[in-house]
TrEMBL record, chain A:
Domain of life, source organism: Bacteria
InterPro entries the record matches: Acyl_CoA_acyltransferase, FEMABX, PG_Glycine_Bridge_Synth
Organism placement in taxonomy: Bacteria, Bacillati, Actinomycetota, Actinomycetes, Propionibacteriales
Gene3D superfamilies attached to this UniProt entry: 3.40.630.30
Protein name: Peptidoglycan bridge formation protein FemAB
Keyword annotations from UniProtKB, A to Z: Acyltransferase, Cell shape, Cell wall biogenesis/degradation, Peptidoglycan synthesis, Transferase
Record family assignment: Belongs to the FemABX family.
Pfam families listed in its UniProt record: FemAB
UniProtKB/TrEMBL annotation, chain B:
Domain of life where this protein originates: Bacteria
Domain called Alanine racemase N-terminal: residue spans: 10-214
Pfam families cross-referenced by the UniProt entry: Ala_racemase_N
Gene3D superfamilies attached to this UniProt entry: Alanine racemase
Organism: Aeromicrobium chenweiae
Full protein name: Alanine racemase
Length: 378, 350
């Protein structure tokens, strides 16, 4: 009988931004919320890049954002859509125990993370059928087209290690969404992607082209124009817009990391800006992050045209996933969110369920107090 | 012939009931399992043929060979197929129930072309695939032929069928949204009204109810169980009798009646509604029960009587207090039985 040598103990320590970036570049992709640049965007949090070391070799990395408790030098350590470790290889304790030790030394009273682990996928056709079926009210009610048992087992391991999943409401927790919509690009051509869309999307893309809508990449100076349309969208759709300075900071931080990390798209019709979006890409994963459109000239279908341009550019850049980000879990046609899902479903992509966000209290009293404080803040 | 523990069936009345149920229940699959609901599986298989039905459902693979011999149509096995079963019958007329992804892959390898049902795991939590496993199940089907999708629902409120409509609706929707390519849905424990509603809501589905008890035992008036009195002895208070030499509580008659443990007498199925109140009532009854006696299922002179000692394999000893008229040796008394645990010396269609 042969036995494998015992795995060496992993150690977690602070790494430099450039070490972190080098590791990210060696990986197919990580979430853009896990890049060193994101710490610069989230300036109200203290950011730290950390690495997992097997001897001298770096084998995992994360961006930690520290949120300070009022009046105390204690922090919630938040790893949005991270860390980037070997989630499915088993023995999670080997990875998470040194993480806890390190973050505790940094003054964390609790850890929150969002394992970038996909548990289930639903194809567009399945979702479309489910929306039409009054009995199937949420994605969880609908039989998934792909079920990853190994990924689902991670939840059991986390629970065993003392982590607790944050409750979500309709798939939206306070943090990152549990359900996302993605268009797979791996091994597909532009024609394949177009053919996978529903008729309405194809017709609208054609319509925009025929109407003369032109989509181009913008510069930092164009952010102000983007922001004007974005503010109009915010008013129309009743959400609170972020200030222009936020987008400028994002631009500066992300493009400094990689010139094409963030791209601004502008769709114009006869000189009028009708839609504007941003796309973020880390390796093989491209995200549609912010989007805006004018109320005027909706019939020229600037939104479809701009999405199609982003998808084509993502494909050309070698992306395997075009990510349209969060959707709610609801499939109830009476729910106002269902329109957004239907728009995304039209691309022919798939809904994916992540493992959700998880908390590990280090100091239970402080953690409880903080959770209550966050709930009151709403 | 008489002289034992027997079931008499008023054949005309019973068959009238069967016909009524079958005509009112399109797509019915009669369940012919276990002890054949007291009537015997062969009789039920023959009745299924007489009723012109194409499929019957049996409980286990052990029951399949007999069913294939007694019935000319398809035989569906309710117990899910497992790779470790050593008595599986592979036959073109057998439909296997599949409830685990790994089992489907195993059967697809062992018996390509076999006919299968996929079963969903309902709130019964007994057997079945999780809804999110259906795609994986379809992925490993290989050459297996999917004949339908099955759900086994719990009994509704008060232990009766019904009350599961929401769950049935949900599973019907799941089936339609899933990758499982069948439009046949086998259901258990829905009322006639629920079946109608399900068909109305799901016009694309062929809803087929699997029915046992309410078909075969739906008209208990057509069935009568009787046991022959084999012997009678006068006994005095304090006299010791039987295997256990138990003293009699008072004077009376000791009756030896056909029907013992081998017939299912004295075997009690766990009661569904034995709450604290129910148990309290039983304790409070006292009397012979408190003295260690148990109430028997035999009714004599209009009253349920007490066992004089635990039932034997073939007969029971019943105590009849003095003052009651004892039946003659050779005559029959009525017995209340749980048909699913009863074995009769004879089933007489009259």
């Amino acid at each position: 009988m042969t036995s494998a040598p015992l795995p060496a103990r992993l150690r977690v320590r602070t790494i430099s931004g450039s070490q972190h970036l080098d590791f990210i570049r060696s990986r197919p992709s990580v979430s853009f919320l896990q890049t060193p640049a994101w710490a610069v965007v989230k300036s109200e949090w203290r950011g730290e890049s950390i690495g997992w070391f097997d001897g001298d070799r770096i084998v995992g990395a994360a961006l930690v954002l520290y949120r300070k408790v009022p009046r105390l030098k204690r922090y919630l350590a938040y790893l949005p859509e991270g860390p980037d470790i070997d989630w499915l290889g088993g023995d999670l304790e080997r990875w998470l125990d040194p993480l806890r030790v390190h973050l505790k030394d940094q003054g964390a009273f609790g850890i929150r993370m969002g394992p970038p682990v996909v548990t289930r996928r639903w194809h567009a056709g399945t979702i479309k059928q489910a929306i039409a079926d009054p009995v199937l009210a949420t994605l969880s009610d609908v039989p998934a087209d792909v079920n990853d048992d190994t990924a689902l087992a991670v939840a059991t391991s986390l629970t065993r290690l003392g982590w607790k999943e944050l409750p979500t409401e309709g798939g939206f927790s306070a943090g990152q969404p549990k359900f996302n919509f993605q268009v797979p690009l791996a091994g597909r051509t532009e024609e394949d992607v177009l053919a996978g869309m529903n008729q309405l999307w194809r017709r609208n893309i054609k319509k925009a082209a025929k109407a003369g809508v032109e989509v181009e990449a913008g510069t930092r100076d164009d952010l102000a124009e983007f922001h004007r349309v974005y503010a109009e969208t915010a008013e129309r759709d009743h959400f609170t817009p972020r200030p222009l300075s936020y987008f400028e900071r994002m631009w500066d931080a992300l493009t400094a990391e990689e010139p094409d990390r963030l791209v601004l798209y502008l769709a114009r019709h006869e000189g009028d800006l009708v839609a504007a979006t941003t796309m973020v890409r880390v390796g093989e994963h491209a995200w549609y992050s912010y989007g805006a459109s004018t109320t005027a000239k909706r019939d020229v279908r600037g939104s479809n045209a701009i999405q199609w341009q982003m998808m084509r550019d993502a494909l050309a850049a070698g992306a395997t996933t075009y990510d349209m980000r969060g959707i709610t879990e609801t499939l109830d046609p009476a729910d106002s969110h269902v329109g957004l899902i239907q728009f995304k479903v039209g691309t022919g992509g798939e809904a994916v369920e992540y493992l959700g966000e998880w908390d590990l209290p280090i100091n239970r009293a402080l953690h409880l107090g903080f959770t209550a404080y966050m709930r009151r803040r709403g | 012939m008489s002289g034992g523990f027997e079931l008499d069936v008023d054949a005309e009345r019973w068959r009238r009931h069967l016909t009524t149920v079958v005509e009112a229940t399109p797509g019915i699959v009669p369940v012919v399992k276990g002890n054949g609901y007291g009537l015997g599986r062969d009789l039920l298989a023959a009745e299924s043929t007489r009723l012109g039905l194409g499929t019957i459902a049996v409980g286990t693979y052990r029951e399949v060979p007999e069913a294939l011999a007694a019935f000319g149509g398809d035989v569906m096995v309710l117990t899910p197929w497992r790779p470790f079963f050593d008595h599986v019958v592979l036959d073109d007329r057998v439909i296997h129930t599949m409830s685990r992804v790994e089992d489907i892959a195993a059967l697809a390898a062992a018996a390509p072309g076999a006919r299968v049902l996929l079963e969903g795991e309902t709130s019964m939590a007994r057997h079945g695939l999780d809804r999110h496993e259906l795609a994986a199940a379809v992925g490993v089907l290989g050459d297996l032929q999917v004949e339908g999708f099955a759900i086994h629902l719990p009994l509704g409120p008060n232990g009766r069928a019904g009350g599961n409509f929401a769950e049935a609706q949900s599973w019907a929707a799941v089936l339609e949204a899933s990758q499982v390519e069948t439009t046949t849905l086998y259901v258990s424990h829905l009322t006639a009204a629920e079946l109608t509603a399900l068909r109305t809501h799901r016009p694309n589905l062929d809803v087929r109810p699997r029915i046992g008890t309410s078909l075969w035992l739906g008209d208990l008036g057509a069935l009568s169980v009787h046991a022959t009195v084999l012997d009678a002895h006068l006994v005095a208070r304090g006299e010791r009798i039987g295997y256990r030499q138990k003293p009699m509580p008072r004077d009376g008659t000791l009756l030896v009646i056909a029907g013992g443990t081998s017939h299912g007498i004295g075997l009690e199925a766990p009661k569904a509604s034995s709450g604290a109140v129910q148990r309290g009532k039983l304790l409070a009854k006292g009397g012979l029960e408190a003295a260690g006696f148990s109430l028997s299922p035999f009714t004599i002179a209009g009253k349920q009587r007490w066992f004089a000692e635990p039932p034997h394999m073939q007969a029971s000893m019943i105590f009849l207090p003095a003052g009651s008229t004892a039946p003659e040796v050779g005559t029959d008394v009525d017995v209340a039985v749980r048909f699913t645990t009863a074995t009769f010396d004879a089933v007489n269609l009259r």
